[in-house]
Each structure stands twice: as structure tokens, then as C-alpha cells.
């Protein structure tokens, strides 16, 4: 452990700078200044994150030293957060929320006043390779999404002129959230981490309810209730740690290993609520009513990643215990159930949400299983999923602002109507389930990691993964097919794409290029950020091996080059375009077929949703029951098996 | 280098072997129906004819996608025979299948569309079985490389009987044989015209035929793995399996997709899943 | 050369009484087995080389026949199977039929009969193969 001033300065920068920009945005008058602030803030944060990751050496940094007034600041700030939540809960008359917020505030007060003074805390902040990886994800994707939001919100408010324009507050929340996320990944003091954790809850709550419609408010409170219950568990873990172990720091807790099983189980509970695993998934589904930048930033690439971040951090403590097994079961069960439900889901944003939940389930399962190979998978999957899912949300937002629909059936013919957007969409979808992109590579590695678990439980996990994989291919291919369908003659409606602004193009293209870079650069990513962390924690590392990396890179190259080349070369060739076959009947460009007696009938082509097979409400009910039971078991096991 | 030779051999020879296999398939089917059947080299004549036909395409996406379908299928097979990780091979194999599905989706013909949806259902049904099969092979033999497994003495069929039976069931789907020829069939009894290939003709269809040959050799390689401890037994097993598939094809009518999906998933869970869990319980690798 | 060895046919009933259609299908059965010549009955014009038309074509399906013919790739051959497709047969003077396939698409081989025998149909197919080869050679000379 050693301090390095550059790293310390950059860490402070990353913690504070987004918040400063946020406060400036709150006060900023006018569109121009707001745009400037967002762009400069995005650039600054991104540059800071990259510099931060580049500045770090191989080890971890723990920052000692007293910062005057830091404890007072955190104390006051957490009270302020509780106050905000209480204010809204009272204003909208939500007794459950009021009760939970008060309980959490009471516990925090008890902890701050009674437990914390008795415990020595050495280093408030730290930075290891995992933090740097998370910082890159937050610091590169977050700013890009904020820039995208400039264009998106402009179109959004143009379409909904009756909605109050509170864009300053919206951008304030986005940037404040970035600070909070950095806080989570840099806090060694768990009480501070709890504060940042609650800050993200509040940001999410306010962002979901931003449009203040009845549906938005209801969903915001559902998210609040579930996440605050997680915060409650977090507080309980803090109290337990302070009272029974005299510890409030993450590194000291990890040093206790499985002695700290109970607080670890409680922290896992908090993490599972944040990551919207079953039975807590309903809040994430409800959060999809928020404007798309919220979904992209909070609910796919960053905030929910805080949940899996915590699970992976707890992994050395829980792995190999009943708690770890319960967590792995919840993760794998979530992966399977969410994938199955997605088959019959027609709403595109909900498809993306369930897919997020499923991939988070995979990471959680890896965390529960533990060990260097599984945790390796978890870390790289965080990166891969964040990039691709964020890209998908951005593209869906762009399409949504032009066609005003979330139904998958209306995404027909996108490659003709909005060709470049459709291509980016395909890139995002490919990143989610096509080999050799990262998510599939992670799934492949996860199956092999679970195969090395000696007990039958490993086999059960593998079977769950196998069925979930099949379902994943199905629901993504459906959407892919819809986008690639060519119905009308080209040239129709292409002008819609001209209305997309530079902000959105920059963000989307950056994401697409990033998804290629992280896939092709997987060996570098692994060697630079992931393996050092694993070596530090476990003394051993995971990974795929040189041969497999080579295969991945060749496959990636072919996957990009071949279709592009084939398409371009084929366009040069002369060929006759003929009509679609509809039993020889005449079909015109609007899908009207000449029918009997001179009539014209329209062809409608809809996807299979297999509703009879995959009754989503039944799957939801059963998986909530099973995962709920697993949660109870997890908490109980921590108590019953503690030594 | 010793990985490159089998991969190259596959890439160059698989179309020939696959075409001959297809020819044998048609002759055996014909004899089962008390007909004479076409000459052995008929599939090659068919493909040559398709290449010589004029172009008639519906849109500019189909031919490039069919070409990608071919290349990725060949890649999957080359990866398999070159000793690559079988689980990765399965994922690449799925990617190859998806190119064909995308080519079919790109046309507006309802037959093509329904064919593509049914092809997705076939992939949905077969994927868990293939993944569990690969997982079980790893558990039983400790390796996922064809070359290592072929050279070893472990009789996989003894440890993995359930997986093999499940694979046989799923093979019927992948080889597009009745009762599971839902999306595309070589038979005359069509319900969705030519299904997934309805709007694909000429050179595009020729590419798809050749891809079928690559695919069949890859699948036969997977069957061979279970008997790889003895080369003559392995080849005999492949021959018998293929014959049984042709027999199944000629004696069954097509089932509805609901039955195909539910029966496959159930059999996968019981036979393949059960086999895998048994391996864990009995202390595999 | 390979065109001759792999003639795939599309069979369309243009208001036939189904007698010739049954005979066409009989060609694929064990007794006559047209698959010996590599003949496959595909239902799809895009895969077909030969278009077998039965029946005298009426006003409702003449558009369909034209579309099917257009959707077939070159080189292609049309066979009129049965006397109704050849010249209208007993229905030649009726108001509701066109009076033969060659009123709608260019026909290359005529196979008379009511119903045409499978042997005659197979003979016609074999002759059509020759026409197919000639067309392909002519097309190659012009390109």
C-alpha cells in the first residue's frame, strides 16, 4: 500500500468535478450555456477517468490522512438525502416509503453517533484495478450519455411540449450521479460508500419520476422502496461490522474472510436490490418509463453495475459458503428467468431491461461461485455489457423520438427507413449475443468455470445457463430480423435520419467503436486491469489463454469485414431485382397483395412470442418465489453458519 | 501447425464429403420408397446448375448474408476439427445459422418470414442440448478439443449415453429431417413453400446448399467424438446414425413446432441434463 | 451441362380439372420416378428451371402465371401439359378461359393428352432439357 499524489489528485478530481459541473448546471440559464457545460464536463470527466486509469501502477492505493470536516460533511449530507426522500414520500403520501426512509435514517444516526466513534478508520478512499476498471466504465460511458442527452431531451421536449421543462435539474442529476458512482467505487470506508449508495438511489428516484406523470411517480416510488430496503440492509451490515468486529472499512472486512459472513450477506442483499435481481426486478422494469438517457446511464451501464460491483467485492468472503451458493443460485435463476420472459416481451425497452437483469444475474452468479476464473468473467462482463447495452438504449431512444413507439413490431424495415441507425442497432445487438463479442465470450467462460465446481450444484448452474442461452439467441434474433427486414422500396422516409443531431451521432458511434475495441482488446484489458486485481485478491488469475484470444480476434475481424465487403462488392455486381414470392400474386411496395376478386389485402408479419409456452407472469411468479426463498436462506445461512 | 492441417482439410474436403453424403441420403431415401433415385453425384449437379442460373434476388442483403452464412459455418467446422473449444464452436455455429435467418427475414414474403421464425424456434430448441452436450463432454473427458478427444482412449459413449441419445434427437432438427423439418425441407410436402429459402434462388441457394454440407460434416464429427476411441467404430457409428436419421425422415410426418420445442427441451433436461448431473455426482473431472 | 442433369420444376394448375396434375405428381412416384433424372418438384419459382402448366389458364390466374414466369431465373423452359394447356382442349371456345398456356407465356414444349400420360410427361421433360441447354448456350454467346 502506498500513496501516489497523481492518483490521489485524479481521484479527488473524479469525485468532485462532476458534482461541480452539476451545481453549475443547476444554475445555468439558457440552452447554449447548458450545452457548453455538459460538453466541457463530459470531456473533463472522460479525460480524468482515462488519466486516472493510466496513472495507476500494478498495485492498490490507500489514502490515509485526515480531511477536516469530512465526517461532518458525510453526516450532514446523509441527513440531507434522507430529508429529500422524506419530503417526496410525504408529498406523495407513500407510507411504506416514509417508514423505510425513517428506519434507515434512524439506523444511520445510530451508527454515526453510537458505533462509528468507537472504530478506527484509516483510509477513507482507495483505488485498485477494479476501481480503475469501474472508473473507466463510469467515466467514459457516462459523459457520452450526457452528451447524447442534449440531443435526446431537445427532441423529447419538442414532442411533449406540455411537460414542464426542467432540463437543468435533469442534467444536474446526471452529473451528480456520476460523482456518486465514483464515490461508490473509491470508498474504502463503508459508511461513506453507503452515503454514495443512497445518493444513487435518490438520483434514480428523481430521474425516474422526472416527467411527474402518475406512472412515473409510481414507478419512482417502487424503485425507492426497493432500493431503500437495500440501504437498510447496508446500514444493518455497518452496525454489525462495527459492533461485532470493530471494523468499518472494506479492506479490513475482506481480511476477515468468511468470519464476516453475516454483514457480507446483508451487503449482498443490498447489492441484489440495486442490481434488480429477482425478486426485486420490478423496479427496473418500471424505470423504463424514464427518458432514455436515464435508462442508458443508470439502469444499464452504471448504477446497476454498482450492485454487481459490490457482489464481486464480497465474493472472497462468500464464495464456497452457503451464502455464496444462494447468491449464485439467485444469479443463475435470474439469468434463466429473465431470458425466458424476454421471449414473450413485445416492448423493446423492457426487452433491454430484462436482458440487463439477465446479464447482471450472470455476473452475480460468477460472484457467488467465486474464485479467480469466475470473478475474471464478472469483471470483463461488466465492461462488455455496459458498452453494448448503453449503445442499444441510445439507439432505441433515437428511434423512439422519431417513431414514437416502443413496440417491437414497429421496428420493421428500420434498415430502409434509418440505415445508419439500424446498422448501429445491429452492432449493439451483435454485442449482446453474437460470438465473438464479449457477452457471449463471458457466457462461454462462465459455463466452463461452473464446470469446475465439484458439486452437483455446478451442473445445475450449467443447465440453467444452457437454457438461458438458447432463449437469449431467440429473442435477440427476432429483433435483429425485424430491423433487417426490407419491405418498402429504398428511399422511403429516409429524411428522418437527417434530423439526428451531432450529439447523438457522437455518442452512438463512440459506443460502437468502443464495443469493437473492448472486444478486440480483451487480452489487453485483461492484462492491464483484471488480472492484477485477481492476483492481488486470490494469488491466481483467470483468463482465456492465448489461443482463444487469437481465435476471438480473427472471428471479430471476419465478422466486421466479411459482411461489409460482401455487401459492397455485391452492390457493384449487376443483378435483377425481382418481386417477393407470394404465390405468384402481385405485391406492391406497401405490402398490399392482390387478393381474390380484385381486392387488395395487407400482409402483416408479426414475430412469434410463444406466449402459450413462456407465460411471463407465471415465470415471474415462480422465479420470484424461488429467488425470494434463496434470499431468506442467504440471510439465514449467514447467521446460522457464522463462526 | 498440427491444428491447421485438420482445419484446412475440413475446409477443402468437407463440401465434397458433404455432397456425397447428401447424394447417399437421397439414394437411400429413394430405395426406402422403392424408387431408383438420382445418381450419386446429383447434389453436385444441383449446385453447379444453381451457380449457372441467372440472378433473381429480392434485395441487396440476401447474397452477402448467405456468403457470411457459408464462411462462418466453414469457420465453425474448421475450428472444431482444428481442435478449438467445442463450446466456442457451438456459439460460432449459432452465428452462422443466424446469418441465414437474417437473409430470410430481409424479404417480405410471409413464407420466408415464417420459415425464419421457425428456424429460430429450432435454434431455441436445440441450443440447450448442444451446450449441455459440450459441457458434459468436458466433464467426462476433461477436454473440449476434438483433436485431444479423438486421440484419447476414453469411451465417451459409455459415460455419456444420455447425452448421445439427446444429441441424436437434436440432430434430426439440425439435419432438417422429418419430424423436425419445420423451417425448410427437402421433401415435397411443404406447408410454407420452401420456408427459409423461399426468396433465395440461384447463386444464393447454391451457397446455402454447400453450407448444409459443411454443417452436416460438422455434426457428424460431433457424433464421431462419442466413439472416437476406435476409428472404425467411430465411422461405423456415424454411418449408422446417419442411416437412422434417414429412416426417421422417411417414416415420420412433420410435427407442430410446439411439440418439437417442448419435447426437445424435456428430453434435453432429462437425458442430457440428467447425464451431466450424474457425472457430477459420480465425480467426473 | 449440369442444367440437363438437374431440372427442377414448378408445377402450376391453371384451372385444370386436376387430371393432368395427378399425372404430373405420379411421375415422382416409384413406378415412373422422375428423380432418376434429377427432377425435383419445388413449389418455388425462384428455384425452378421448368414451369409445368396444366389447364387452359383463365382471366383470374393469367397474372399469376405471368408473375411466376417472371420470378423464375434464366434460363427457363415452359411446358404445357395436357391438351387444355396446349390449345384449350374441350374448353377452347369457352368465355372464361384464355385457351392455352401459350396465350399467356411463351411455351417451349407441348405435351398433349387428356390426361397426359406420365411417360409422355417425362418424355416432354427430357425434350425440355434439350431446349434448356440450347437457351443457356445462346445466352452465353450473347454475353
How would you characterize this protein structure?
The complex is a heterotrimer of chains A (about 650), B (about 280) and C (about 140). By secondary structure, chain A is mainly alpha-helical. Chain A has a domain at about 320-575 and about 610-643. Chain A contains 24 helices and four strands. In chain A, strands 1-2 form a two-stranded antiparallel sheet. Chain A has a two-stranded antiparallel ribbon with strand order 3-4. In chain A, β3 and β4 form a beta hairpin. In chain A, α16 crosses α22 and α19 runs antiparallel to α20. Chain B has one domain (about 5-280). Chain B has eleven helices and no strands. Chain B has helices at about 5-30, 40-50, 60-80, 85-105, 110-140, 145-150, 155-160, 160-175, 200-225, 230-250, 255-280. In chain B, α5 packs antiparallel against α8. Chain C has a five-stranded parallel beta sheet with strand order 2-1-3-4-5. The mean pLDDT of chain C is about 90. Chain C contains five helices and five strands. With about 140 residues, chain C is an alpha/beta fold. Chains in contact: A-B, A-C, B-C. At the A-B interface, α19, α20 and α23 of A face α3, α4, α5 and α11 of B.
For the secondary structure, the number of strands of chain B is 0
Shape of chain B: globular
Mean pLDDT of chain C: 90
Greatest interface = A-B, 69 and 71 residues
Per DSSP E runs of 2 or more residues, the count of β-strands of chain C stands at 5
Number of helices of chain B: 11
Instruction: Look at the helices and sheets of chain B and give the structural class.
Output: mainly alpha
Q: What proportion strand of chain C?
A: 5-15%
In percent, how much strand structure appears in the residues of chain B?
Answer: under 5%
Radius of gyration of chain C: 14 Å
Rounded to the nearest angstrom, the distance between the terminal CA atoms of chain B is 28 Å
Overall 3D form of chain C: globular
Low-confidence stretches of chain C: none
Oligomer: heterotrimer
The chain-level mean pLDDT of chain B equals 90
Stretches with pLDDT under 50, minimum 5 residues of chain B? none
Calculate Rg of chain B over CA atoms.
18 Å
Question: Helix content range of the residues of chain C, please?
Answer: 25-40%
SS field, number of helical segments of chain C: 5
Alpha-beta classification of chain C: alpha/beta
Count of all domains of chain B: 1
